[in-house]
Amino acid sequence: MSVDASPSATRVVNPYEWSFERRFMRRVKVTSRGCWRWTGALMRNGYGQLKVAGVAWAAHRYSYTMLTGPIPDGLDLDHLCRHRWCVNPDHLEPVTRSENLRRGNVGTYWSTKTHCPHGHAYDEANTAHRNGRRHCRACDRQRAARRRNGTH
C-alpha cells in the first residue's frame, strides 16, 4: 500500500483498487440494459479476459471478486443477463455447475440438429435414445459392421 501525501489529508491508497479503477473500468461500456460490456480482450468462448499482476482472469470473475467478494468454492458465476461479455456483478449469481447449465439451455443447440454429422436424418426410424442422448442408428450399424470386420 502507498500513502497519498496530498495536503488536505493523508489517506491509505490500496493499489488493487487503483488498478481496478484504472485498468478494469476503462474497458467497460455500460449498455442501455445495465450490462457492463467488456471491451478488452475476449476469449474464443466470448468471455472477457485480462491479466492482473501476471495472472490471467476471466473478466467477469475478476469483477465479481473485486466488487462483491470471493466466489464461493464449488460454484460458477451465472450471467443472469445471458451475455458472456457482461462484467456487471449485479448480473452475476454464484450457482452450482448443474444449475448454470440448466439455466443456459445447453442442450438447445443439439436438439435443433435435424441430421447426424454424417448426414443421416434424425427421424423416428433412425434415432435411438440412450442415456438422454440421441444416436443415429445408421451410424451405429456402420460402426458395428466395421468392428465385426475388424476395420475400425
Characterization of the model:
The protein has two domains: 28-103, no CATH class; 108-149, no CATH class. It has a two-stranded antiparallel sheet. The protein has a two-stranded antiparallel sheet with strand order 3-4. A two-stranded antiparallel sheet has the order 5-6. It is an alpha+beta fold and 152 residues long. The protein has helices at 15-24, 59-67, 97-103, 108-111, 137-149, and strands at residues 2-4, 11-13, 28-30, 36-38, 49-52, 55-58, 76-79, 92-95, 127-130, 133-136.
Mean pLDDT metric: 85
Discrete helix count: 5
Number of strands: 10
Order of helices and strands: EEHEEEEHEEHHEEH
Q: What distance separates the N and C termini? A: 64 Å
What about the largest sheet? 2 strands, antiparallel
Q: How would you describe the shape?
A: elongated
Q: What is the percentage of strand-forming residues?
A: 15-25%
**Strand order in the largest sheet:** 1-2
Helix content: 25-40%
Low-pLDDT stretches are: 1-11
> Structural class, from secondary structure content?
alpha+beta
Number of domains: 2
